[in-house]
Write a structure and sequence with these properties.
544 residues; alpha+beta; Phenylalanyl-tRNA Synthetase, Chain B, domain 1; Phenylalanyl-tRNA Synthetase, Chain B, domain 3; ten-stranded mixed sheet; seven-stranded mixed sheet
C-alpha cells in the first residue's frame, strides 16, 4: 500500500481544524494511520484513491467531511496556446500523450517533495511501474513551444536529468539505473519516444528519464506536465489527478492541444464523472431511511454533487465506477461511526440451503466409502485441461491478462484437475482413491454457465471400470435411490471400449471409464487409473 507522510501543523492549517480532530477523522476518508508523533503522521491510502497521495488531496477530503468546504470542487481551465505534435511512428510504441500547464505556482520544499512522491506513486500504481503510464514534470520557463512527441533512433543524444553531458538513448537504456529498470517496456523497438521543444531541448525520454534542462525546483513558477501512456483513458485519469492537485497547490490550469496525425484533442478534460443516483439503493444498502435532502448533504460532504437522477463525482475520483460507489460516499458523508449496528429481524439461525446439504451428503458418502476428498483450483492451465487429453480447446473459457499461465482458464471438467493432483503425488503409496465436488464452467450462447460436478479417480495397478462403477452406484443409490444405466460411449478422458455414459430416469448425468494410457503417461502417474464424472446439478433436480 502506498504511504504518504503528513506534517500535522501544515495539514491543520490547510483544513482549518485542530490536529486531534484531524487524526480522529483520517480513517473516515479511507486512510489507515501507520504511525504518528507530535509533528507528523504516516498514512496508507488505497491504490484506487491516488487523489489522496498528497496533503492537498487529503485536506480537500477532510474539509468536506468536516463541513468546511462541501460540494463538487470546480476547476477552471484556459487555453495555454501550447500544442504538442505527435509523430505517427509512435503508434505501436507509446501512442498517447496528455498534457497540461499550471502557472502562478509558489512552491516550497514540502510542496515539491509531495508532488514528486505523488508522481512516483502514480508510476507504480496506475502506471504499472511506468509500463502503462509515465509522468514528466517540467519548468515551463525553460520550454519554447510548440512541442513535438516524436520517434528517434537509439543513437539520439540529450542530457538526462542530473546529468552533465549528453548520453545516447542506447547508453541510457543499458548503463543507467532507470534504463535497466524500465527499458524492458520497449520490447525490441527500433525507435524511441522523445518530447522536445521548438529549439530541440529535450523535456523527456518517456517512460525512462526526463531531460535536465527543464528540471522542476522550488523556483519553478510555471509547470508543464506530460503524461504518456499505452491507453488514452489511463493517461487522462493520471493527468486529471495531477492537474487537480496542482490546482489545489495554487496553480492556474491551462489546456494543451494534442495534434495527432488524424485528429486533435485538448487536455485535460476535468468534467465531472456521472453515475446513476438511486435513492432506494442508498437507503436499502445503508439501512437508514434518510430523506433526499440529507442524502444530498452527505454527498456534498464527500465532495460530490447531484443533478436530477445523476450523481456527479469530481474528475480525480477515478474509483467511482458503479451506483454502489455512490452509496459508499453517502455513508462516508453521513459518518460511518454514526451508523449503529442492528441485528437482523429474525429469531432463526442460519442454515445451509437444500442444495448445499445435498452436496454435503455426497461428500459424506464418498468419504465413507474410503475416498479422500480434494479441493483443486477452478482456474487451471491449458496443458492439464486440454493438451494432456489431446482434445480441442475451441470452447475454452480464458482469463484476460492472467497473472500466471498456470491459472489462465476456467475448468470445464474435474477429471483433469484430479489427474494433475495425482501427478503431484506420484511418490505417495498406492492405491490412491480421490474425489472432488466442485464447479465447472462451459460456454453458452448467452455467456458462461456454471454447474456442480462430482469427479472421482482410482489409481493403482488393478484399477478398473468395475471399481469406479462401485463408487458411482453407491452415491446414486444411497442418496437418490436411483438406478443408473450405463451404455457404451466415447469420451475424451477414457479409453475406447472402456467407457460408458451414465443416465438415470433417461437423463444424461456424465461418463465413467478407464483413462487413456496416453493421458496417464502425459501426467506421469505410472499406474492405471479409472473414474467417473457426473453432473450433481442434474442429479439434484432428479431428486426434487
Amino acid at each position: 500500500m502506498p504511504v504518504v507522510r503528513l506534517e500535522l501543523s501544515r495539514l491543520a492549517e490547510m483544513v482549518g481544524a485542530g490536529e486531534e480532530r484531524i487524526l480522529d477523522r483520517l480513517p473516515y476518508i479511507g486512510l489507515d494511520i501507520e504511525s504518528a508523533n507530535s509533528r507528523s503522521v504516516r498514512v496508507e491510502y488505497s491504490p484506487n484513491r491516488p487523489d489522496l497521495g498528497t496533503d492537498y488531496g487529503i485536506a480537500r477530503a477532510l474539509r468536506g467531511l468536516l463541513g468546511k468546504e462541501t460540494g463538487l470542487p470546480e476547476f477552471q481551465t484556459k487555453p495555454s496556446g501550447i500544442t504538442v505534435i505527435v509523430d505517427r511512428k509512435l503508434a505501436k510504441v507509446r501512442p498517447y500523450i496528455a498534457c497540461c500547464v499550471a502557472t502562478g505556482l509558489d512552491l516550497d520544499d514540502e510542496d515539491v517533495r509531495q508532488i514528486i512522491s505523488l508522481q512516483e506513486d502514480l508510476h507504480n500504481g496506475l502506471g504499472r511501474k511506468r509500463k502503462a503510464v509515465a509522468v514528466g514534470l517540467h519548468d515551463l520557463d525553460e520550454i519554447s513551444p510548440p512541442l513535438s512527441y516524436r520517434a528517434v533512433p537509439s543513437t539520439f543524444e540529450f542530457v538526462p536529468l542530473d546529468g552533465e553531458k549528453p548520453s545516447s538513448i542506447r547508453s541510457i537504456l543499458y548503463d543507467s539505473y532507470e534504463g535497466r529498470t524500465y527499458g524492458h517496456v520497449f520490447d525490441r523497438s527500433k525507435v524511441f519516444p522523445v518530447i522536445s521543444d521548438s529549439k530541440g531541448t529535450v523535456l523527456s525520454f518517456p517512460p525512462i528519464i526526463n531531460g535536465n534542462a527543464t528540471k522542476v525546483t522550488t523556483r519553478t513558477r510555471r509547470m508543464f506536465v506530460d503524461v504518456t501512456s499505452t491507453s488514452q483513458k489511463d493517461g487522462d485519469d493520471v493527468l486529471a489527478i495531477l492537474a487537480t492537485t496542482l490546482s489545489e497547490v495554487g496553480g492556474k490550469l491551462g489546456t494543451v492541444a494534442i495534434s495527432y496525425p488524424n485528429k486533435t484533442r485538448v487536455t485535460p478534460d476535468l468534467a465531472p464523472t456521472e453515475l446513476p443516483f438511486d435513492l432506494d439503493l442508498v437507503r436499502s444498502v445503508i439501512g437508514l431511511d434518510l430523506p433526499r435532502r440529507e442524502i444530498l448533504g452527505c454527498l456534498a460532504r464527500s465532495r460530490m454533487g447531484v443533478r436530477g437522477n445523476i450523481a456527479l463525482g469530481p474528475r480525480y475520483r477515478i474509483d467511482l465506477l458503479h451506483p454502489v460507489d455512490v452509496v459508499e460516499e453517502v455513508a462516508l458523508g453521513y459518518g460511518i461511526d454514526r451508523i449503529k449496528p442492528v441485528f437482523p429481524p429474525s429469531n432463526t439461525p442460519g442454515a445451509l440451503n437444500e442444495f448445499e446439504e445435498f452436496l454435503d451428503s455426497v461428500s459424506t458418502v464418498m468419504a465413507g466409502a474410503g475416498m479422500i476428498e480434494m479441493m483443486t483450483y477452478e482456474l487451471t492451465d491449458r496443458k492439464s485441461l486440454y493438451d494432456s487429453f489431446e482434445r480441442p480447446s475451441s470452447e475454452k473459457v480464458t482469463v484476460q491478462n492472467p497473472k500466471s499461465l498456470d491459472h489462465s482458464m476456467l475448468r470445464d471438467a474435474l477429471i483433469p484437475c484430479l489427474m494433475a493432483a495425482l501427478s503431484g503425488n506420484v511418490k505417495s503409496d498406492y492405491p490412491q482413491r480421490v474425489f472432488e465436488i466442485g464447479r465447472i464452467y462451459t460456454r453458452a450462447f448467452d455467456g458462461v454457465k456454471e454447474f456442480w460436478h462430482l469427479g472421482c479417480l482410482v489409481a493403482h495397478s488393478q484399477a478398473s471400470y468395475t471399481e469406479a462403477k462401485m463408487y458411482l452406484e453407491a452415491v446414486c443409490r444411497l442418496l437418490a435411490g436411483l438406478e443408473i444405466v450405463t451404455k457404451a460411449a466415447e469420451h475424451w478422458a477414457f479409453s475406447p471400449g472402456r467407457c460408458a455414459s451414465v443416465t438415470a430416469k433417461e437423463e444424461g448425468l456424465g461418463y465413467i471409464g478407464e483413462l487413456r494410457p496416453g493421458t496417464i503417461d502425459a501426467f506421469g502417474v505410472g499406474v492405471p487409473a479409472s473414474g467417473f464424472e457426473i453432473d450433481l446439478s442434474k442429479l439434484y433436480e432428479l431428486l426434487k
